[in-house]
Amino acid sequence: MRATARACANIAFIKYWGTADAELNLPLNGSLSMALAGLTTTTTVAFSAERGEDSARLNGAELVGPALDRVSRHLDRLRTLAGVRGAALVDSRASFPLGAGLASSASAFAALTLAGSVALGLRLEERELSRMARLGSGSASRSVPGGFAEWLAGGDEESFAHRLAPPEHWELWDVIALVDERPKAISSLEGHRLAPSSPFLPARLERVPSRLAQVRRAVLERDFALLAELSEEEALELHLVAMSSRPGLLYWQPGTVEVLHEVRRLRAQGLPVFFTIDAGANVHCLTPAEHRRELEERLSELSLVARLLSSPPGPGARLLEGPEPEG
Length: 327
Ligand code: DP6
Fold this sequence. Notes:
binds ligand DP6; 8-stranded mixed beta sheet; alpha+beta
């Protein structure tokens, strides 16, 4: 009763912000992302009838308190589905720096869902895996199919992510400019909870469906200019809602603004690049593969950028070891 799985983090072009149901992680709007091959979590789950309590390690450090509870609650969902009892030993490793203000819950819960379900003898289809991962962390639903993925809004049964295109479809690179490596002060959980207190949320929700349809088309047709325009609009709008919540959430740091201006400057000079920002200060800068080096050079010259992490599109969650290994 043991399995190992690996899943990528993802960066959303259309973002999840606000829940229709906070228990079930049902989003107010559909979202669309690209999985990041360079940012992965690898998780082994082993169940045993003997062990009394779940325990979990992340990069060698024992999880305690709310972090362990969140993992345990997720394992409970899987145990209920499998009709199996038994405590789990979870060993998880992230390939990217934790606490760097980068979302790690997407890759973590996608890998945990796949490894946990296989270890319990479940053979879930991708759709069901994505739905289950969503219950652990909303954005994890998109890390299950990987590549370019869309997570559908809807009821519990309909809200899962599916793959729009495989990673090979479009070699876009995400060059992440790290400007603040402290763990984020305000979790996305808190952001989702506060979203309805912004007077601008209704305006956002009115605009997102047509933007999502256009972003889907931009990805399928590899229309960089359209994706650039809409992704920046989307990221700024999410932060507008966050800033105007009560209390207002200000994720940006001085380095964030420095990078935003540099991205616009570079684009005006002819370099195809656009930015997007999640619930944190670090800026994701996207560019076609052939411009990656130049973008990295330019961003590394900025005074407030500590370092860069770069990644092409990545695959969906996959099994590395288990009762029935893939392949
Ligand atoms: C800004 O999926 O991290 O990154 O369900 O509480 O784990 P939880 O929220 P999470 O929210 C993601 C917020 C975002 C946008 C996005 O990735 O869509």
